[in-house]
Design a protein that fits this description.
This protein is of the alpha/beta class. It contains 15 helices and 20 strands. Bound molecules: 1-deoxynojirimycin.
């Protein structure tokens, strides 16, 4: 296997709107990011992924782009960007940009033209269909609630939008669209960026006849019906040939609806498509069987283990995994699979970090994860901003699935806004994020949970993440080792081994607040501890303490 730089990388994701404001308008910006690059470097990661910073009317906070080659005014200027890129490179940090090309904003000049008339030269840049029996062309639903089809009065036709009405889907079957996208990508690569995170790239190729799908609780077929369409791999291979293969990049496809079999094409080690994919199966392990994400959580540790382990084993040597617990679309992991009470927050955050960072694949750390940042205690819908959470809440509320009060309690656990509250830098007003009024409220726990406090304390989550990242840089067994799950049925413990050449690791993580008896496998008795989240590990451990994580190492040749 040819080794690639991004196999050894750890990526830090920035959600620019919430990272650091430099001018007091309450919105994070590029100059703010530049000022914090040394902090990111200190954590030890080598790559930064920026959520979109392009010009956008912000219907979906920048995932609705109106000009791919301009910077959103709220975030600064192209000069600010160039300065940030140069500073990042000086510090040895690579910059990966978000690429959002399944759709544009309806304010993009292509769509402004496209909707003007049926014979406009840009008409075919988007997906237009005649009404079917006087209504929508199919029962496809938008990810944000409601139909995925919007009637446009000007021409009496519907356009497809798998996300908001202000995010019309591009027509990738039109070669002119592919030319434009590839040219734009090349323009950014010529500027010296180091890769792309590709937004819902698994949705770009649609079945041209848009067959109806099975309706979900909201009344429509899931937007994921569009996943892995007929020309998906052909278009990505074309992108690879025409653009990606000319550079040495990290590319990661956000692949809603991706199966393991599909991932073997998207992320094949032969390099014909992308470096890796974000799969969603493990994020869906706690979904409600009927209502999906926007409902009560169903935590099932054996199921979570089964999914993550299947991806580890099946992709080994064939394709490359990405590893994540958090991003700007997910509630905070410590509030989800850990425990965000004062008693367990730090221990469980470190346990979850260990569990993920010891696996095979490229780990992603979402801003604030390295501090053990938690969900926000939302009390009203007015405090929230996210179009997806509010849209899905309304749809299910209107169909009688929950009252407003129940809905708010559900969003406290499930909303994407939990990830998007401002980064907690210190204990000064607004957590040092802004001198003004932040666009989303700062979590009231910032006086206790903040970067300044964590950096000053040796046993903090920050320093623990620093160690996890440094270990990956130092040890091939963490990067390339083969994975094996032990104790698959255990309800509390997640136990696995990694093996590479003469090295073997045993990773033990307790996902509960109860002590659990455990017998160390014979071959690990007397072996040394590589890392753990309790100060001491008793020799020949027999009990795994609440939220404990411990990694043992040994030499298989028996030398250790
Ligand atoms: C996935 C992005 O991560 C999410 O934030 C966005 O709303 C949708 N794609 C639409 O672009």
């Amino acid at each position: 296997m040819e080794k690639k730089w991004w196999q050894k990388s750890v990526v830090y994701q920035i959600y620019p709107r919430s990272f650091q404001d430099s001018n007091g308008d309450g919105i994070g910006d590029i100059a703010g990011i530049t000022s914090r690059l040394p902090y990111i470097r200190e954590l030890g990661v080598d790559t930064v992924w920026l959520s979109p910073i392009y010009q956008s009317p912000n219907d979906d906070n920048g995932y609705d782009i109106s000009d791919y080659q301009a910077i959103m005014a709220d975030f600064g200027t192209m000069e600010d960007f160039d300065e940030m890129l140069a500073k990042a490179h000086e510090l040895g940090l690579k910059i990966v940009m978000d690429l959002v090309v399944n759709h544009t904003s309806d304010e993009h000049r292509w769509f402004v033209e496209s909707r003007k008339s049926k014979d406009n030269p840009y008409r075919d840049y988007y997906i237009w269909r005649e009404p079917k029996n006087g209504a929508e062309p199919s029962n496809w639903g938008s990810c944000f609630g409601g139909s995925a089809w919007q009637l446009d009065e000007a021409t009496g036709m519907y356009f497809l939008h798998l996300f908001s009405k202000k995010q019309p889907d591009l027509n990738w079957d039109n070669p002119a669209v592919r030319d434009e996208v590839f040219e734009m990508m090349d323009w950014w690569l010529q500027k010296g960026i180091d890769g792309f995170r590709m937004d819902v790239i698994s949705l770009i190729s649609k079945e041209p006849d848009f067959p109806d799908g099975e309706a979900e609780a909201g009344g429509y077929a899931s937007f994921q019906i569009a996943a892995n369409g007929p020309h998906e791999h052909e278009y990505l291979q074309e992108m690879n040939r025409r653009v990606l293969s000319k550079y040495d990049l990290l590319t990661v496809g956000e692949c809603a609806g991706v199966t393991l079999e599909e991932a073997k094409s998207y992320a094949n080690l032969d390099g014909s498509e992308l470096s890796m994919v974000f799969q969603f199966e493990h994020m869906e392990a706690d979904f409600d069987p009927e209502l999906g994400r926007y409902a009560a959580q169903h935590k099932d540790i054996p199921k979570l283990k089964e999914i993550l382990s299947r991806w580890e084993v099946e992709l080994d040597g064939i394709a490359w995994n990405s590893l994540y617990w958090n991003n700007h679309d997910q509630p905070r992991i410590v509030s989800r699979y850990g425990d965000d009470s004062d008693e367990w927050r730090e221990l469980s955050a470190k346990m979850l970090g260990t569990c993920l960072h010891m696996m095979q694949g490229t780990p992603y750390v979402f801003q604030g994860e390295e501090l053990g940042m938690t969900n926000f205690p939302w009390t009203s819908l007015e405090q929230m901003n996210d179009i997806e959470s509010l849209g899905n809440y309304r749809q299910l509320h209107d169909r009688g699935y929950y009252t407003e009060e129940e809905g708010i309690a559900m969003l406290r656990k499930r909303s994407r806004d939990n990830a998007r509250t401002p980064m907690q830098w210190d204990d000064s007003p607004q957590a040092g994020f802004t001198a003004g009024t932040p666009w989303l409220p700062v979590n009231p726990n910032y006086t206790r949970v903040n970067a300044k406090e964590q950096m000053a304390r040796e046993d903090s989550v920050f320093h623990y993440y620093q160690k996890l990242i440094a270990l990956r840089k130092a040890m091939d067994v963490i990067v390339y080792g083969h994975y094996r799950l032990l104790e698959p049925e255990h309800e509390a413990l997640f136990v696995y081994t990694r093996t590479w050449e003469e090295d073997e690791l045993l990773v033990i993580c307790n996902f509960t607040d109860k002590a659990v008896p455990y017998t160390l496998p014979e071959e690990f008795r007397g072996s040394s501890v590589l890392i753990g989240n309790y100060p001491q590990v008793p020799e020949n451990l027999q009990t795994v303490r609440p939220y404990e994580a411990v990694v043992f190492q040994r030499k298989t040749s028996g030398l250790c």
